[in-house]
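Input/output pair, single chain:
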Amino acid sequence: MKITKIEAIPARIPLKPERRMKSALGSHEVSDFVLVRLSTDSGIEGCGEATATPRWSGETVRGAQAMIEDVLAPALIGCDPSDIDSIEERMERVAVYNWFAKSAIEMACWDAVGKDAGSPVYELLGGPVRDLTIRNRFSLGAYPPDVAAQRAAERVSVGFQTIKVKVGTGNETDIARVQAVREAIGPDIEMTIDANGGWSDADARYCLPRLAEFDIALVEQPLPRGNYRELRKLRAESGIRILADESCFDEVELEELIHQNCCDAITLYPGKQGGIRRAFRMAAAAEEHGVPCTIGSNLEWDPGAAAMMQFIVAASNVRIEEIPGDCLGPSYHEFSIVTAPLEFDGPYTTISSRPGIGVEVDWARVEQCRLP
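Output:
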């Protein structure tokens, strides 16, 4: 089987009003994606997704589209999509970074290979290590304290056992928001916070002692990405448990976090890591050093979330049972663009055992939300 064509289709979809997100990175009311449609000489197609968020990854939907069509795709035509190592090597040779654009192509290769083999991707990765249904945490935007409290209580009422609260939008407001959420959900529900790198070291050292009384299980990305020295010192001196996210895109950053003792756990997911294989490899590398991983979200659409589920099911060190993550992105959006989508039921997400990444894109539906 050989790759004959790779298309990059830009699309936009609004979030449901009640799911619109606010964080230290700003407001998120619509999502822009690049959907990859990979064709092969056997007639089998694969689909992938680049979740382009410039304030987070630095990639734009138009930039990802151009990178895929003008740089990455020409290097891959004629390649065997099952040779993932070669696919990754060729993409690395022609472009640095651009993790989400690369992941969209790699994801589409896995999808085509799985369909050709009649197997879900998790089987190709070595088989499932957990159930096809996972329990998620709920990520709560940086809403005013009263709104945050109300929405957190609503999520607990439908079965969520972990609530993640966005902070990094102003110290006193952050503290008030976390306090309001803790009072709304009670003492028995786990709560984590996520600054998305929006705190300075001074902000973190001001807020964290004042938040300690609210029983915070993990603090995600308290300092800006790349600030390993201060992150190490903050962890050592404050005693807080730190979950690294924006500080870990590739293996070099993973090694830096581990060897500088910067964190207690690391968030991985295929889009951020540049593909399912790299994310799987990084999870295994972290496991060798006794550092657990979990899954994060960039509010993926259907193909991206399906790929995440394949990774979660197959990667033993994505220890969502101990450190809940979230794979709920499609449920935040107003409509789906796949047949037989992932199943969402309160805090639970279920992937099917269908071949490939497990969903089939309705390309006619995609055309309806295609960006001009």
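The CA atoms of residues 100 and 166 lie 23 Å apart. The chain has two domains: 3-117+363-368, 124-361.
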